[in-house]
Known about the structure:
Bound molecules: S-adenosylmethionine
Domain SRR1-like: 44-192
Protein name: SRR1-like domain-containing protein
Pfam family, one: SRR1
Low-confidence stretches: 1-7
InterPro entries: SRR1-like
Organism: Lophium mytilinum
Strand order of the largest sheet: 3-2-1-4-5-9-8
Strand content: 5-15%
Amino acid sequence: MDQRIAPKQVPLSTLLGELAVFKEEWLKSPFSNQLRGLLLVRSVWNIDRAVVVGLGNMTPLLDYDDDENEYRRRRKQRLTQLTIFLDIVDILSTAQGGRQIKIYASDPAFERIDKAFLKKLGIKVVKEAEEHVTSSTFVYSPFCPWYVGVAAIRHSPQLYLGVSIQLIMDLHEPRQEPQYGFDMTEEQAATTEKFLQTRVMQSFPGLEHYPDSEEGMQWAEFKKLAPELVALTSQALWGAFSFYWPKSGPLPPVTTED
Ligand SMILES: C[S@@+](CC[C@H](N)C(=O)[O-])C[C@H]1O[C@@H](n2cnc3c(N)ncnc32)[C@H](O)[C@@H]1O
């Protein structure tokens, strides 16, 4: 049955098998340990849902000049992004005594196979991620367009992981009268500013030395700086990619929209 819903001769069973292999590789890596240590520094988590935006299609379309190796690499890249997301959910659940965390995913690029695959993993695919974000949510944005992340942080999620919010601010001048969808509005700028003022930022393990600035770093230079991370994740994570969680103090009230 699985075989019939999978395009490009990649059956669902292959995706599940590959995910298991990448998970094992990830969990054996020093980055997984560092990730656990980083998240457990914060002793009070109150998270009951996790939302991933922009994960992408697990069987990405080939460009005309891609070969089978490039196709496999890109599949590994996205499966590894998913592995890391699920590892963080697991760490947060364990830190809260095994609390159940509902998991949602949203991406207009999902195809039937992605939806079937995510369903098998207990992940609910939703149209509008923003509607599912509350103050007790972990939001993960593996390179989703910036405005989707900004829409999510409007709901003050307790944990956010994605491209540096500071960098997003630096790259987009707020406009009173935005002309294009990617122009930042003043309301979006106010949302990001408020978020930054109330959050602590921590780089993802292995990306600490990546500059959080417009200048960034060339890919060749980054590969030299973090060869283990690049090889392990198949280029899944790079750049100024950071966690944000609340500064110490009382936790925000929990909202329970669904
Ligand atoms: C640059 S790709 C990243 C894909 C993959 N995570 C990666 O790193 O290769 C951005 C992804 O965001 C998705 N996207 C665009 N708008 C979105 C939205 N409103 N909600 C969720 N995902 C969205 C796109 O379909 C695409 O899969």
